[in-house]
Amino acid sequence: MKTTIKDVARRTGVSIATVSRVINGLGGYSNDTRKKVLSAIDEMGFRPNAVARGLVSKKTHTIGVMLPDVSGMLAAEILKGIESVAKEQRYSVIVCNTNYSGDRSQEYVRTLKEKQVDGVLAVSEYMTPEKSKALLSLNLPVVLISTLSYSYPFPYVKVDDKQAAYSAVCHLIDKGHRRIAMISGDRADLIAGAPRIEGYVQALRDHGLSVDESLIRYRAEFESFGFHSGALCMEGLLRDKPGQFSAVFAASDELAMGALSCAYRHGVRIPDDLSIIAYDDTRIAEMATPPLTALHQPLFAMGSRAAEMLLDMSAAGTLEADSVIIPHKIIERESVRAL
Amino acid sequence: MKTTIKDVARRTGVSIATVSRVINGLGGYSNDTRKKVLSAIDEMGFRPNAVARGLVSKKTHTIGVMLPDVSGMLAAEILKGIESVAKEQRYSVIVCNTNYSGDRSQEYVRTLKEKQVDGVLAVSEYMTPEKSKALLSLNLPVVLISTLSYSYPFPYVKVDDKQAAYSAVCHLIDKGHRRIAMISGDRADLIAGAPRIEGYVQALRDHGLSVDESLIRYRAEFESFGFHSGALCMEGLLRDKPGQFSAVFAASDELAMGALSCAYRHGVRIPDDLSIIAYDDTRIAEMATPPLTALHQPLFAMGSRAAEMLLDMSAAGTLEADSVIIPHKIIERESVRAL
DNA sequence: ATGAAAGCGCTAACAC
DNA sequence: GTGTTAGCGCTTTCAT
């Protein structure tokens, strides 16, 4: 039998109300009883039942995190950031792996509602109108990370993708590159696809460089930002436009890894024959051979920032907050060579 | 105001007991009232409050997962497997990033107790006696993944590290290698450190090969299985024993990546000049240049298997279960060359 | 087949 | 300062 507040009360000879008071540090008891209660709690190994507490207080001290793939480097790092502040503020986090599925997402929203979470964070989720509606119907604080919704103005935390892509390409141009290819994720992706391409195009234009559509590659497939996709895009580039580009901007670390892998297979040396700059800068960027020069997103910080926002919102009882654009920067390593 | 079972009852004109019955499909009501209740639930968008349910049923349909680093490739993949079966069986999972800290672990155990989880999974946690004791005191089903406890026989799911290391080294020997170095994680690690070294030594001995202690490298530091450590160990090997080994067995993917990176920096080509076999085979193994031949651990499967065990235990009301040794295998890619 | 009522462990008035 | 009591939203006897 688990020990309850009642047991502590009986053992101490006070009422459960008093025990509750000292547990919650509410005051309204002598220093003497406080000590008695505290030591009883200690001796009995009593821990307040959070479920019972949640039922009456309507606060579960739990938040939900939805993400398409927990095992992705990006998501995992952000999750770590979230978990970190949650822990600090004594919150628990429930992970929901939506697996890129809208249906699954809907189910999770339902579950989170039943579980009475105090708020939800959506990481890299593709925000369809349905998903936004579901989240909205929770009537709970919601903060998006690395994504945003066009159907409802949920506050978000992300870098400016277009601007970041622009910076990355400018870096290449600064290094003397003129013929720059791009390996993108699905162009239909309005968050991480199209905007990065726009940044790429814009950078080229702003430097008086012409844009060759056939130098922009992507695959509209399942993991369009994945390793496999990167390798295939590079394959196409090497086949169709040999010697016609001196650098490539990859829209994700994995895409860059795929490109690297393909280049290696074809005997094209990085960065001697070809420069590559990646987007994300997850841990694999520095593990690559050669280490990837990359556009850095502060993943952990993004996660913790968003979690702070969410908990603040919850505390303030509001559903609104100002979105924050996180600054990005370029980490120079060895995959880009000056021409 | 949220709609409760009471609202549904009133709206339908039946008692809350009846509503509860149809929600739980317990039978004991006419088909007619069932339909009425169901449609009312639907119209009102009613969802049973899991917190209230948990309070009375003493089942929260929630499990806790403790791991030293959510953002690690290993853990993340295992977590995904866990989450997958949890979702299937309508369970939620709370992640606890212990950050390699014993204190943090203790705190989490307390939190999980308060939250009344139905069981806990510990992934790659270094099981000190204190941690085991804490977990044990929960009096709840516990299953370990990729680790085991010497202080208490918690059921676990893992591969046989010594045997797996043995296989990996045999693979190298089969390919004609005779001088084989090893880059290990902290030797003081009784789970993933020492056993893999033992497997390495055993394989050498069984093939009549001599064991050169100076060919075994590791660093007793924070992330002893990490990329940085791998690079440093390789550095030492290349410096101290140049040309004296034709292959290296790395005790983790990251260690192998570090070795690869260092080799590249020194102009030693993989696999032409040196072969490398890794342990783990997380997603980065295939992303490496060249792709790493590796000893594969079925991470996702390990996670899901353990979760199944845990939920079965919970359902059966037992704290015991048979541990399972997961079979491993070697994935041949391009980092090992036959001599 | 259905309802009344007693809790689950706790918090929060409200008394004294 | 401390106790009593009324719930929180649900499940579960026990009647009827």
UniProtKB/TrEMBL annotation, chains A, B:
Which keywords does this Swiss-Prot/TrEMBL entry list?
A: DNA-binding, Transcription, Transcription regulation
Query: What is the protein name for this chain?
Result: Transcriptional regulator
**Per its UniProt record, what CDD domains does this chain match?**
HTH_LacI, PBP1_CcpA-like
Domain HTH lacI-type per the UniProt entry, residue ranges: 3-57
PANTHER family, A to Z: HTH-TYPE TRANSCRIPTIONAL REGULATOR GALS (PTHR30146:SF109), LACI-RELATED TRANSCRIPTIONAL REPRESSOR (PTHR30146)
Q: Does the keyword Transcription apply?
A: yes
Q: Does the keyword DNA-binding apply?
A: yes
Species of origin: Hahella chejuensis (strain KCTC 2396)
Q: Which SUPFAM superfamilies match?
A: lambda repressor-like DNA-binding domains, Periplasmic binding protein-like I
Q: Which Pfam families match?
A: LacI, Peripla_BP_3
Q: Which domain of life is it from?
A: Bacteria
Q: Name one GO molecular function term.
A: transcription cis-regulatory region binding
